[in-house]
Amino acid sequence: MENTKKKKKKPSSFYRRQDRWGLIMMSPWLIGTVLFFLYPLVQVIIYSFNDITLELGNVNQTWAGLKNYIYVLRVHATFYQDIISIFAKTVPNTILIIFFSLFAAVLLNGKYKFRGVARVLFFLPIILATDLISVELSTVALSGANDSKVAAEGVSGALMVVNFLIDGVGLPREMISTLLGVISNVFEVIKLSGVQILIFLAGLQSISPSMYEVAKMEGATAYETFWKVTLPTVSPMILTNLVYTITDNLMRTDLVDVIQTTAFGQAQYGYSAAMSVVFLVCTLALVGISVLIVGKVVFYND
Amino acid sequence: MIKKNKSAVAAPKKRLPRNLEEWSIWMKRKGAGLFLSILRYALIICIGQIILMPILKMVSATFMSPNEVGNPVSTWIPSEFSIEHLVVAFKLLDYPKAVIYTIATTGLQMILQILSAAITGYSFARIRSKKIQKLFAIVILTIVVPPSVMTLPRYLFFRNFDIFGIITAITGNPINLLGNPVTLYLLDIFGMGLKAGLYIYIFRQFFRGLPRELEEAAHMDGCGFVGTLFRIIMPNAVPGIITVGVLSFVWNWNDTYYANLFVGNKLNLMVKLTSVSGDMQNTLWAIHSKIPGDYYFIHNSVLYQSSILTTCSMLVILPLIVLYMFIQKRFVESASNAGIVG
After folding, report:
1. Fewer Cβ atoms within 10 A, N terminus or C terminus of chain B?
2. How many structural domains does chain B have?
3. CA dist., res. B294 & res. B301, Å (int)
4. Is residue A196 part of a domain?
5. Is the model's pTM score more than 0.95?
6. Is the pLDDT of residue A45 over 70?
7. Candidates B43, B51, B225; nearest CB to A107
8. CATH number of domain containing B216
9. What stretch of H or E contains B81?
10. Residue A264 sits in a domain of what CATH number?
11. Considering only residues 5 to 64 of chain A, which have any Cβ-Cβ distance to chain B shorter than 8 Å?
């Protein structure tokens, strides 16, 4: 009897109860958001307008207006250049990572022997994604402490090729230098694109096989299928990956260390807060602009 | 048109071509596919080599005897295997103890992060109220905002930890939680730990894919919200849990930022590696009395220091590689099939 009663008033009461309980279960996260996210964020912005000194862990703050910002952007020796160079590096890196990871995901999605091995290999960088070890790894990969002679030979060989391309073939110098930049970035790009490959692969898996069947029946070539079926379906993932890649890249930059040493090494808390705010604003701007640009071409199926 | 007909006619034949003409037809038909698959394997091998080579290099540096390092004859395979680097690195990192400690703390962090992210993600996936749905923007914001921005306030918060002045009222002073792993657990419980926003996002996407009928049926049978979550939903969320679990474990293990800032605990492997790499010569000198006398031990040689550091890094990532070996199949499957869907 009770069951039928419940059934009658089901939709409203069930969903209302779900809403209520959902809110209750979510409350730790809400508290955390206020305590560990919004409050610190506001605090940093306040700090950045003040002179901060710490005494036994207590904060003394005196209003300083824009002084910290002026110092950070005008007086500080490297911060201004740092932030420009970091963003100038992040943009091409992000584009490369997105292209590479989409390519790798397509490669890993096909059917062939040893696909499992290939997947395991490509996800290995996720496991090894740490700053300290990857610094160690890339130095080992690039030269190795013990074969500097081999490395030197490699460099001189590369220089010969470069000179040949510029003088002999007559390619423009700028093109070669961008190309060289891309090549020397290969290790970094592969290292940073593990999660992105994962996301793209999940997207590719979610395309139903019947879509491909239809494309095949209609006589589409593999090339057309990729552009007309695969790419539109994974385009929301491009957006996801874009946001993730930009933030992930920015979190790994030296700027983070600069901010930290300014605060804890030199006890310049106000300057550090101002740097944080500038960094934050630039990050949000970059993410916002790129989402706006890419969001226009994203295709949502539902 | 003609080409198509040709291939349609030739398709049923399965024997190998016999003469030159047949070979040329066969190449026309299969050539492109063959070329593509060769290209594919070549690419995979190249990229795999780039990924694997540093690790192999590390292994080779680990087992090289110290007086062979820098010898141009043996760049890859040492002429005789030696464990001298390993012994020194073990002593430097206090390895067995540190590994057990780090596995325990990282494991606990992983469990807390899975729980908080799953519960929050589930709530976000199921709450219908539009106002609360809008809060999801904050989750995206927590992914986008670099944690280093909030370093100072968080640091001060844990330096003077207090709950609404209760602790000050009782003991007279707020507690200093710095140097205590509890700080990390607190952040994890409240869903603000390392990359927590991403985990909430993954779980929300995952739960949105589960049919609502599951919960309605559970509701019919008199199961409450919490009961439904833990008895019905979580057992169905194994792929999501594996994905988030592996990512959380690995990233917490590899994290130097939070660990150095809040914990600074000398038993944590990453903290140890950071301090060791910061001042190699002195840390090496400090343990020289514990090294057996017949070992080749030169604390002030840069080459020796760098190979010891390589060995230490190898030891630090070794547990992760072992873990990955065990779980890779499940991880790759669940992550690519159901884990993250944009």
Report:
1. N
2. 2
3. 17
4. yes
5. no
6. yes
7. B43
8. 1.10.3720.10
9. none
10. 1.10.3720.10
11. 6-7, 10, 14-15, 17-19, 21-23, 25-26, 28-33, 35-37, 39-41, 43-44, 47, 54, 57-59
